[in-house]
Design a protein that fits this description.
The complex is a heterodimer of chains A (about 230) and B (about 290). Chain A has about 230 residues and is α/β, with parallel strands linked by helices. Chain A is built from nine helices and ten strands. Chain A is globular. Chain B has one domain: ABC transporter involved in vitamin B12 uptake, BtuC (Orthogonal Bundle). Helix content of chain B is about 75%, strand content about 0%. The radius of gyration of chain B is 19 Å and the shape is globular. Classes of the chains: A alpha/beta (about 230), B mainly alpha (about 290).
């Protein structure tokens, strides 16, 4: 097996006094699309925030391209080539669409050009002068993904990109993620929409109570469906 | 026409100009406060003391080093800004995760300490600073002292340049974005803690610059900041915390209103701004240009 792009080992995380992550361990290979599946509050978003350095209290090991990042500040982690698209999208209301798109600085060579980004998301070019938060939910989600493609980051952390969106837009985002995989991006996806996850991902990690309890390759998903139901069902 | 309103044109334009000058200082100071509050969430009560330090910086540079006004106009704000950045790094930074109130208490305490130190050294009666632009121009309807004209124009240029940088440049887009979501901006690879230090330094430098400009217009005194800062806070409340254009427009506007009140109803001239503040708070609590957070 090739060297993992991201290697998470025994990751613990705290929000104030509450212990949220209890030893998360998983890998992502270069070029893979991997999901973290699990119920609300299982620790999926917290895991992403820990990888990005946004969760202050974290211990254990997070290695990106072999480099330990668990004690680095978010800006230094970003400059290694990891980019984050938060669940609430984080579109800035005091910036217009174009400013939002151009905000994240280019950290490494090899990112998409603005033209290539507009090719993927033509709608953003049409609405370039609109205030960021005047966009529809789907457009905001596209903008949140689009702006991290320019930076040269190789690992994209996408937190529930389909949440609250119409089926046709969910389908479009699925196409985008497949295109990104073809372009060589590696994607870590947090999802509650299991059906959507199965259309884009290579492997799935099942998260429960702040630890990984199972790993299911996407081609084994049918035979594991019943088991996944018990993990994810309400 | 002037007979109709019963006021001599000289008095009207004279007070209008004084109002504009005061407004220029309100605008520069509230602009710095707005920028600092936007990014740091700290109500910088030291602002008045830093304005005073700017004026004293100019006085000291002239009397101890022999650097004239125009050199002090650049040097004094830089020195005061550096002192401000040291305060941010060593003290303010420890309070960001706490309630607003702690930053307010710290900066208020610092203001008292700084003012006390200067009072102890220089007394409270005030020191004179020579006008670098003596003389004036007769505009026909009024006599315009050169230095006062210079203050109004210089502060307008400073305010508009600041607005342009914040609202229309890439650097400004980082600042606006970090005001909304500092964590996310940092996760994009921007060194937000350093940006916070520089922003505080910029706001403080702006206060000191206003102080240097004030030195020849008023007296250089340890209490000059605390006298002004209460009015400036009222201006900030009226304009709306965190709005750049709001700070500029209300600063100049209220200076002019204050000047006009001196002409038409002098008894109210020292309270008119606070009356307006009360009315604005009743009708639009977030301020004229502010948005509720």
């Amino acid at each position: 097996m090739a060297e993992a792009l991201l290697e998470v080992r025994d990751l613990h995380g705290h929000y104030g006094e509450s212990h949220v992550l209890h030893g998360m361990t998983f890998d992502i290979q270069p070029g893979e699309v991997v999901t973290l599946l699990g119920r609300n509050g299982a620790g999926k978003t917290t895991t992403m925030r820990a990888i990005m350095g946004l969760l202050r209290k974290r211990t254990g090991s997070i290695k990106y391209q072999g480099k330990e990042t668990v004690s680095l500040a978010p800006n230094h982690i970003a400059r290694l080539g990891i980019a984050y698209c938060p669940e609430e999208r984080g579109i800035f209301s005091s910036l217009n669409v174009r400013e939002n798109l151009l905000l994240p600085p280019v950290v490494l060579p090899g990112g998409l050009s603005v033209d290539e980004v507009h090719e993927l998301f033509p709608r953003l070019e049409e609405r370039r002068n609109s205030q960021g938060t005047k966009l529809s939910g789907g457009e905001q989600q596209m903008l949140a993904i689009a702006r991290i493609l320019r930076t040269g980051a190789k690992l994209l952390l996408l937190d529930e990109p389909t949440e609250g969106l119409a089926p046709v837009i969910v389908q479009h985002i699925g196409e985008i993620i497949k295109t990104l995989k073809k372009k060589g991006f590696t994607v870590l996806l947090v999802e509650q929409n299991f059906h959507f996850a199965s259309t884009v991902a290579d492997r799935h990690y099942v998260v429960e109570h702040g630890r990984v309890v199972d790993m299911v390759p996407n081609d084994k998903i049918a035979e594991n469906a019943a088991r996944l139901e018990t993990f994810l069902g309400v | 026409m002037f007979e109709l309103i019963g006021v001599a044109p000289q008095a009207l334009f004279g007070q209008l100009l004084l109002g504009l000058i005061n407004g220029a200082f309100y605008a520069m100071l509230s602009l710095g406060l707005a920028v600092i509050f936007g990014l740091l969430n700290v109500i910088n009560f030291t602002h008045g003391a830093q304005y005073m330090m700017g004026a004293f910086g100019a006085w000291m540079l002239l009397n101890y080093v022999g650097i004239p006004f125009w050199g002090a106009l650049v040097l004094s704000p830089i020195i005061v800004a550096i002192i401000g950045m040291i305060i941010e790094r060593t003290l303010l930074r420890r309070l960001y995760h706490l309630d607003h109130l702690y930053g307010l208490l710290l900066t208020f305490g610092l203001a008292l300490i700084l003012e006390g130190l200067f009072r102890r050294q220089y007394g409270s009666s005030g020191l004179p600073y020579d006008n670098p632009l003596p003389g004036g121009t007769n505009l026909g309807f009024m006599f315009l002292p050169n230095y006062r004209g210079f203050v109004v124009i210089a502060s307008l240029v400073i305010c508009l340049a600041t607005w342009f940088v914040i609202e229309r440049t890439k650097l400004g887009s980082y600042l606006r974005a970090a005001t909304e979501r500092p964590d996310l901006v940092q996760a994009f690879g921007i060194d937000v803690p350093r940006m916070i230090t520089l922003t505080y330094g910029f706001g403080v430098g702006l206060a000191a610059l206003a102080g240097v400009l004030a030195a020849p217009a008023y007296q250089v005194s340890p209490t000059m900041g605390s006298n002004l800062i209460i009015v400036v806070f009222a201006v900030v409340v009226i304009g709306g915390m965190g709005s750049i254009m709001g700070a500029i427009v209300t600063g100049f506007g209220l200076g002019v209103i204050e000047g006009l009140t001196k002409v038409f109803y002098p008894e109210a001239s020292s309270t008119v701004i606070f009356v307006i503040m009360a009315i604005v708070l009743l009708i639009k609590p977030a301020g004229l240009f502010g948005t509720a957070k």
